[in-house]
């Protein structure tokens, strides 16, 4: 039976990894046993996916990203070039801490910009955007726009990724027309 996904000849997909239909795994990638990649994903050059990592459908992981054990990506997450996930809060080369990997969950449709760092143990909410070079050291709310070192929220973004401008406590996305309301420092879509 022919595989229904693509693996470049220089990539290594270990036995026991699950790869969804339509996924493309490009040059010099390594997918470890027990990793699960959903349908329609794209792994750019030199991507590492650790044991037990779960990557949802339609995720795009750009060049030079390592998705370590205990990282979970929901559907349609974008990981920009050379962004970083960590997995131990207090690493030391001479101290074994594999039993201390802190989980990181990235919500549906979130964007993690180029060269940003996500410190383990913090979740990124659905449709949030973390700007290029930001360092996330706390949990990020859904739809939050985060920038800086340490990352701090400077606004809200729509499901389509556009920054929202508010008139009072409501906003309408200029690109897709979705409407939102800000309530008690959270954002909710108005249906």
Describe what this molecule looks like in 3D.
- The protein is mainly beta.
- The protein has a single domain (6-160), classed as UDP N-Acetylglucosamine Acyltransferase, domain 1.
- Helix content is 0%, strand content 34%.
- It is built from no helices and 25 strands.
- The chain has strands at 6-7, 12-13, 18-19, 24-25, 30-31, 36-37, 42-43, 48-49, 54-55, 60-61, 66-67, 71-73, 78-79, 84-85, 104-106, 111-112, 117-118, 129-130, 135-136, 144-147, 152-156, 166-167, 170-172, 179-183, 186-190.
- The strands form 5 sheets. The protein has a 9-stranded mixed beta sheet with strand order 1-4-7-10-13-16-18-20-21, with no helix packed on it. A 5-stranded parallel beta sheet has the order 3-6-9-12-15, with no helix packed on it. A 4-stranded parallel beta sheet has the order 2-5-8-11, with no helix packed on it.
- Number of E-state strands: 25
- Main β-sheet: number of strands, strand sense, barrel status? 9 strands, mixed
Number of helices: 0
> Over all CA atoms, what is the radius of gyration?
17 Å
Which range does the strand content fall in? 25-35%
| CATH architecture heading | 3 Solenoid
Determine and state the CATH class.
Answer: Mainly Beta
- For the record, what is the CATH homologous superfamily label? Hexapeptide repeat proteins
Shape annotation: globular
- Measure the end-to-end span: 45 Å
Low-confidence segments, given as residue ranges, are none
N-to-C SSE series?
EEEEEEEEEEEEEEEEEEEEEEEEE
Task: Give the overall average pLDDT.
Answer: 96
State the strand order across the main sheet: 1-4-7-10-13-16-18-20-21
CATH topology: UDP N-Acetylglucosamine Acyltransferase, domain 1
Tell me the structural class: mainly beta
Q: How many independent structural domains? A: 1
Overall helicity: under 10%
